[in-house]
Specification:
The protein has 521 residues and is of the alpha+beta class. Among the domains are: 189 residues, FAD/NAD(P)-binding domain, CATH 3.50.50.60; 72 residues, no CATH class. Helix content is 34%, strand content 18%. The protein has a 7-stranded mixed beta sheet with strand order 5-4-14-15-16-13-17. A 6-stranded mixed beta sheet has the order 7-2-1-11-20-19. Helix 1 packs parallel to helix 6 and helix 9 packs antiparallel against helix 10. The longest helix is centred in the last third of the chain and has 27 residues. The termini are far apart. The mean pLDDT is 94. Bound molecules: flavin-adenine dinucleotide. Flavin-adenine dinucleotide binds next to helix 1, strand 2, strand 13 and helix 9. The site of flavin-adenine dinucleotide has 39 residues, from helix 1, strand 2, strand 13 and helix 9.
Length: 521
């Protein structure tokens, strides 16, 4: 290598080779090329058009805005190009019992009063029999979602309009293409081809190069496995063990089909519990995404397909596509000089739209822990990455398991099984704390803290036996007055918001959205 392309450390750039060009591959390529100097890190991405991508993954969490902002992406342009809509949370229907409905919002429930978290005041009010004790009324995001309303959150922290965040529903294929163009323009090298061989260093076991079907060989210092469920490098070549979580999350298949758009654009994802799993509904500008995530132990594929087609809002756009998966994760996401990101590192069903978030978290952690050019591999970096990755997966797993375990759908075999199965110890601990004291998990790192747990625990019928006695400092009449004032303040503000559909039309309407709504709407 000539001196001219040596970096400021006097060493050659670290050669990062990404195998796979789905959402994980292109988010990794974009994140690395944006945050690290190109003279220190060269990025090559290999993808196979023949194999293609998983082609699903349309609902996101608010963190994705941080990722897009970090890349400097123009939001309105990105939303037009990916036919995106806004998302304020997820509506869960029929999870506790048929007929029930609650929203898990991207935002807070209430406000802490007198230094005491809101849920303690709420449960005190509930016990005292104060009128209007509907938890959902005290979340701005829930009330806005119920009204099909959307506006950007207010930056004034004192305003009730600042108490929520938002995410997007988008076309996953278009998002990966968008990032691909973005990354290639910034120097990422893309190679189309199928990896058919991988060579390793006989002494260290590290990966050295991959060979494509065309015979081309691509050498690297760090390999990122974004090859999807195949886990070509981490699982296949390095043989890192799979931790299977089917006993806690029995769904192992999904059928996915888009349909024509009908009616108002809802600013939320819908997840409806069904006989052997649940169906999703994701509104995009030009169509609605749908799917049935189910357990093959409890329903036949053909029956699941009929059940899915029976609940579409509009005419199906083609035949449902069947996807098979196992819930779980690789025991290590980083082994030697190989890091797996995306489906290659693990999979948790899309009930809380967490997979793209897990990709983002892994890219962020990898950038922070990236080996320095010329420094060789340092196992401590891998250990820290694996620690963080494990924590993320286990916390999300517990949260997903909660949705299943807390049900009263007695007499339905899947639901009877998940209600009575032994739970992970970490989940049992959280449930005990909540049941006895209304205490909720709160942590800085990772997903799903206080408000998320509260929405699902209470939404699925679990009422704690006690609450923080500091909440008793308020008189009951003062508490009732404050609750009424907050509820009215939220409703009045939401009533003044734009309709979500009108907001989209004004801000980021995609050309394809025009005329996409069914005439019958
Ligand atoms: C039913 C379902 C619904 C989902 N819904 C959501 C959701 O709503 N929200 C969310 O956040 N996530 C969701 N996900 C997860 C989401 O789809 C994935 O996390 C995301 O698409 C990332 O996938 P990936 O890039 O890891 O893999 P893939 O999209 O499968 O990409 C793999 C890449 O590797 C390449 N490749 C494989 N083998 C080779 C080879 N030998 N040589 C060269 N290239 C190769 C392929 O060509 C492709 O480019 C869902 C997943 C499923 C299964």
């Amino acid at each position: 290598m000539s001196e001219a392309i040596r970096n400021r450390h006097g060493s050659q750039p670290l050669r990062v080779v990404i195998v796979g060009g789905g959402t994980a591959g292109w988010m990794s390529a974009a994140g690395i090329s944006r945050q690290l100097r190109t003279e220190d890190y060269s990025v090559t991405l290999i993808e196979s058009d023949d194999i293609g991508t998983v082609g699903v993954g349309e609902a996101t969490l608010p963190h994705i805005k941080i990722f897009n902002d970090m890349l400097g992406i123009d939001e309105a342009q990105f939303m037009r190009e990916t036919r995106a809509t806004f998302k304020l949370g997820i509506q869960f229907r029929d999870w506790d019992r048929p007929g029930d409905c609650y929203i898990h919002p991207f935002g807070a429930f209430g406000e802490p009063w007198g230094g005491v978290e809101f849920q303690h005041h709420f449960f005190r009010a509930l016990r005292a029999g104060i009128q209007h004790p509907s938890l959902q009324d005290y979340s701005y995001a829930v009330v806005a979602a119920r009204n099909d309303a959307f506006e950007f959150p207010n930056e004034d922290r004192k305003s009730v309009r600042s108490t929520y965040a938002y995410a997007y529903h988008f076309d996953a294929g278009l998002y990966a293409s968008y990032l691909r163009s973005w990354a290639i323009e910034r120097g990422v090298r893309r190679i189309e081809g199928r990896v058919c061989d991988v060579s390793r260093d006989p002494t260290t076991g590290d990966l050295v190069e991959v060979t494509l079907q065309s015979g081309e060989r691509i050498a690297g210092d760090l390999f990122i496995d974004c090859s999807g469920f195949r886990s070509l490098l981490l699982g296949g070549i390095l043989g890192v063990a799979w931790q299977d979580w089917t006993h806690w999350l029995p769904c192992d298949r999904a059928l996915a089909v888009p349909c024509n758009r009908v009616g108002a654009l809802t600013p939320y994802t819908r997840a409806t519990a069904r006989q052997a799993g649940w169906t999703w509904r994701i509104p995009l500008q030009h169509r609605t995404g749908n799917g049935y995530v189910f357990s093959s132990q409890f329903i036949k594929d053909s029956d699941a397909q009929s059940a899915l087609l029976a609940v579409l809002d509009g005419a199906a756009q083609g035949e449902p596509r069947l996807l098979r998966f196992s819930p779980g994760r690789r025991a290590l996401a980083w082994s030697g000089n190989c890091v797996a990101i995306g489906l290659a590192s693990g999979f948790l069903e899309p009930l809380e739209s967490t997979s793209i978030y897990l990709i983002q978290a892994a890219v962020t952690d990898l950038v922070k822990l990236m080996p320095k050019p010329g420094s060789g591999t340092d196992p401590r970096l891998a250990d820290e990455f694996n620690r963080l990755n494990e924590m993320q997966y286990e916390r999300i797993r517990d949260f997903l398991v909660l949705h299943y375990a807390a049900n009263r759908r007695v007499g339905e075999p899947l639901w009877d099984y998940v209600r009575t199965m032994p739970l992970p110890d970490s989940l049992v601990h959280k449930l005990q704390l909540y049941r006895s004291r209304a205490a909720l998990p709160n942590y800085q790192y990772g997903l799903f803290a206080r408000d998320s747990w509260l929405s699902v625990l209470y939404g699925q019928g679990i009422v704690p036996e006690g609450y923080d006695r500091l909440a008793d400092a308020f008189t009951i009449s003062k508490l009732a007055e404050r609750l009424t004032e907050l509820r009215n303040r939220i409703q009045t503000n939401v009533d003044a918001m734009s309709a979500h559909g009108a907001f989209i039309a004004d801000y980021c309407r995609a050309a394809e959205a025009a005329g996409s709504e069914e005439a019958a709407a």
